Structure formats: structure tokens, C-alpha cells
From TrEMBL:
PROSITE patterns noted in UniProt: PREPHENATE_DEHYDR_1, PREPHENATE_DEHYDR_2, PREPHENATE_DEHYDR_3
Pfam families: PDT
InterPro entries: ACT-like_dom_sf (IPR045865), Preph_deHydtase (IPR001086), Preph_deHydtase_CS (IPR018528)
Record-level GO BP terms: L-phenylalanine biosynthetic process
Keywords in alphabetical order: Amino-acid biosynthesis, Aromatic amino acid biosynthesis, Chloroplast, Lyase, Phenylalanine biosynthesis, Plastid, Transit peptide
Organism: Ensete ventricosum
Pathway assigned in UniProt: Amino-acid biosynthesis; L-phenylalanine biosynthesis; L-phenylalanine from L-arogenate: step 1/1
Superkingdom field: Eukaryota
GO CC terms in record: chloroplast stroma
Annotated Basic and acidic residues bias: 80-89
Protein name in UniProt: arogenate dehydratase
Location of the protein in the cell: Plastid, Chloroplast stroma
Length: 447
């Protein structure tokens, strides 16, 4: 019988600063540019609040991220001088006008947006007021930032360079929550994030669904015919695949860590031949031209994000809840375990909203020995994948039927963990022209 892993059985969060993290595919030093008409004034905020040490910087980062989310005057902010190796992550970048090289350009100036945290930056920062600190992967303008704002409308959104850093930010108390995209109506599951959910000990405390509206962004003045390359998050590239082809764009597609980061990269490097797929908000933040608007292959393109916390929430039965579990089968059960698990829910009238299998990380392969039939044949070995299953079902752990279903599932699984039991996002999808607009309702505001 499997043990259900809950916070009590899994122990507390761990520190994993030494874990190797994949390098961004196109490494850059991040600085943000916006088109600016007036000569910017020196902002006292940057001189006063950003100190020389990392803790000061992180605090400032948290404040800045909320400013960026709310401050429509950000175009008036200030360039900063950058010394090589400067820990404060602020830099003065050559101005760019989109018609010539980055160094020679004239009408774009750097604006200070919060810099993404890396694993190396993670030490607990003092909390500012009562605002919830919400870590997300990407840079300002990423869809994950919009999801954080939808889930927690007045939060400090903290950008992180990798998903791993967002998880660790919560584990190390640098952030209170992380927001993580897990699946998309066009592109399917974001598998890496399911693997991370299993590797870490955070709990799902809520979900938000965000309509995603992609734009094709280029430097000002660039025409479609000049493009040889489009860069973006792999999900964004796959969500726009047919439209790009239908637009007659004969371009190479290249994966980037996040959509807004791709937009920023084009600007920072003055790339006249490269477009990025990102949000309209990213176009605004980085001073880019929108070459095409709404280029996703389906207008009902929605991404589901989950919110993660160090502690689970107390499940309730007075509103629609969803519960996410992950399990592995006993060796002897083979594929029949899936049938049994599904029956445990079906007999109790519990609907499933998701079922996903992933190769088992620790034991990806099972060897099956078989002696060949007929006269003295040698034993052959068949290699079978071992799977871990992720299931979301529509019931709260506060309900008896859900508890009974899980007790039954436990009987024929070797491993079972409840990732979280949390309120369903019931907000109707309004497909607007800008996915960054936050909804008036905030499914996560109670968690
Ligand atoms: O890259 C981003 O902006 C993200 O937040 C990840 C993502 C990418 C594409 C669709 C939804 C989320």
C-alpha cells in the first residue's frame, strides 16, 4: 500500500542552492529599454533604495515589480550606470532606435524594470508591508506576470530567470507564492513543470486560467520581409505555428525561456532580422512595434497556471474545488492500475479534468524477462517505460467521496502524493485583445 505524502510525511522545504540549473538558451544581461520622448529625470528611488548588497537589491526588486505592474508612468524612469560585475543588476545600455545598431540608436532609453532573480540571489529578503510576494518565471511582460496579477491583484510580482528559481524563492522565504504555467488549451501540458512539482515540496493552493493573446513584435521600422527568425517560449511558438506559416513568414523558429525575455533580447541586441512572439504589454515595456496582433492559431487560447505555497490550504466543501494527485503503479499492476484508479473516481461520480502520464524519473525503465517458447530458447528482455500519473479531479479533500476514492487508489499504487486541493477558477474566459489585463475576480486572493 502506498503512503499518501502530505507535509507531515514529506518534511519541510529544503535548500537546494547547489542544484544545477539549465542556462538560458540565449544568455544576456538583462536591461530594459523603452521608447522615451523626453530626457528622463534621475529617479531618487534607484539611488536611494537600491543598495550595494544583494538583500537591498532584492527588497528593491520586490517594490519595483509592483511598481511596474501598476505604474503607467514607467516610461519616465531612469537609466543607471552599470559597472562590470555590479551586483545590483542595473546597467546603462546603449540607446537604440530600431533602424541602426543598438549602440548608435537615439530614441530608446533604458528603464529600470525588476531584474529576474537567479538561484544565486536567493536569500530571504525583508518583506515590504503586507503585500504578498509572488515569484514567476520570466521578465516583466511575461504571461506568468499577468497570471500572478490575476491571482493576487495587489501582489509584489518577483521575476525569476528559471522555474527552478521561482520554486526555490518560495522554499527559501524570498517569496510567499509562485505562479507556474502547467497546461495550455492549444499546446498541451508544460511537462517540465509537472516534473518540478514532483521534485519540490510545495503545495498547489489555487489555479488561474488566462486567455493568451500573442503578438508578433519587431524593432520599430522593421518590415515582415526582413525577418529570418522568430524567437519565443516554445509554447508560444507552437500556439502560433499555423498563423506564422499562413502569414508567409519563411523564418526559423527558436526557443527562448520566456516570451517577454525574447522581446527584450531583440531590443537589447538591435536585431533587425528577428521578431519575438509576446504580449502587447511586452511591446509597450520594451518599445517594440506590433507587426501582427492576435497571431495564436485559436482565439480561445487559454493557459492554466497553478499557485504554489509552502503550506497547503484547508480544503472546503462549500465551493467547487479541484484536487491534484500524482501516483505510480505497483510493478505487478501493469497498465490495469490506471483502469482501477479511474474506476475509483467514476463509481463516486467524481469528474476528472486532467490525466497525464510521464516517464518515472527515478525508474524510467522496467525490464521484463520472458523465456521464449518452444525448445530451449534463450530468455529475452523487454524494456518497458515506467510511468508516473498526474490526475486532477473535481472534488475537495473535505468531501467524504474524495477521501474514499483516494483510500482506494492508495491500495493499488506504490506511491501517491496529493499536490493540493484548491478552489477551481470559475471566472468565465473573456477573450480580450490583451491577456495582461487582470480580471476583477481573483481566485487566489484567499490563499
Ligand atoms: O513566457 C511567458 O510569457 C510565460 O509566462 C510562459 C507562457 C508561454 C506561452 C503561453 C503561456 C505562458
Amino acid at each position: 500500500m502506498a503512503a499518501i505524502l502530505t507535509p507531515a510525511t514529506t518534511g519541510t522545504h529544503s535548500t537546494r542552492l547547489a542544484l544545477p540549473i539549465a542556462k538560458p538558451k540565449l544568455p544576456i544581461r538583462r536591461t530594459h529599454l523603452v521608447r522615451c520622448v523626453h530626457r528622463p529625470e534621475i529617479s531618487p528611488f534607484f539611488h536611494g533604495a537600491v543598495g550595494a548588497n544583494r538583500a537591498d537589491w532584492q527588497s528593491a526588486c520586490a517594490i519595483l515589480s509592483s511598481k511596474v505592474a501598476t505604474d503607467s508612468q514607467h516610461h519616465q524612469q531612469t537609466p543607471q550606470h552599470h559597472e562590470a560585475g555590479d551586483d545590483t543588476n542595473h546597467s546603462l545600455v546603449p540607446v537604440v532606435n530600431g533602424h541602426s545598431s543598438a549602440a548608435a540608436a537615439l530614441d530608446l532609453v533604458p528603464v529600470q524594470l525588476p531584474q529576474p532573480l537567479t538561484i544565486a540571489d536567493l536569500s530571504p529578503a525583508p518583506k515590504h508591508g503586507s503585500q504578498l510576494r509572488v515569484a514567476y518565471q520570466g521578465v516583466p511582460g511575461a504571461y506568468s506576470e499577468a497570471a500572478a496579477a490575476k491571482a493576487y491583484p495587489n501582489c509584489d510580482a518577483i521575476p525569476c530567470d528559471q522555474f527552478e528559481a521561482a520554486f526555490q524563492a518560495v522554499e527559501l522565504w524570498v517569496a510567499d507564492r509562485a505562479v507556474l504555467p502547467v497546461e495550455n488549451s492549444l499546446g498541451g501540458s508544460i511537462h517540465r513543470n509537472y516534473d518540478l512539482l514532483l521534485r519540490h515540496r510545495l503545495h498547489i493552493v489555487g489555479e488561474v486560467q488566462l486567455p493568451v493573446h500573442h503578438c508578433l513584435l519587431a524593432l520599430p521600422g522593421v518590415r515582415k520581409e526582413q525577418l529570418t527568425r522568430v524567437i519565443s517560449h516554445p509554447q508560444a511558438l507552437s500556439q502560433c505555428e499555423h498563423t506564422l506559416t499562413a502569414m508567409g513568414l519563411n523564418v526559423a523558429r527558436e526557443a527562448f525561456d520566456d516570451t517577454a525575455g525574447a522581446a527584450e533580447y531583440v531590443v537589447l541586441n538591435g536585431l533587425q532580422d528577428t521578431a519575438a512572439i509576446a504580449s502587447a504589454r511586452a511591446a509597450e515595456l520594451y518599445g517594440m512595434q506590433v507587426l501582427a496582433d492576435g497571431i495564436q492559431d485559436d482565439s480561445g487560447n487559454v493557459t492554466r497556471f497553478v499557485m504554489l505555497a509552502r503550506e497547503p490550504i484547508v480544503p472546503r466543501a462549500d465551493r467547487p474545488f479541484k484536487t491534484s494527485i500524482v501516483f505510480a503503479a505497483h510493478d505487478s499492476e501493469g497498465t490495469s492500475v490506471l483502469f482501477k484508479v479511474l474506476s475509483a473516481f467514476a463509481f463516486r461520480d467524481i469528474g476528472l479534468t486532467k490525466i497525464e502520464s510521464r516517464p518515472h524519473r527515478q525508474r524510467p525503465i522496467r525490464l521484463e524477462y520472458e523465456t521464449s517458447r518452444g525448445g530451449g530458447g534463450a530468455a529475452s528482455t523487454a524494456k518497458q517505460f515506467e510511468y508516473t500519473f498526474y490526475v486532477d479531479f473535481q472534488a475537495s479533500l473535505a468531501e467524504r467521496r474524495a477521501q474514499n476514492a483516494l483510500a482506494e487508489v492508495q491500495e493499488f499504487t506504490s506511491f501517491l502524493r496529493v499536490l493540493g486541493s484548491y478552489p477551481m477558477d470559475m471566472t468565465p474566459w473573456s477573450i480580450t485583445s490583451n491577456s495582461s489585463s487582470s480580471s476583477s475576480s481573483s481566485p487566489g486572493s484567499q490563499q
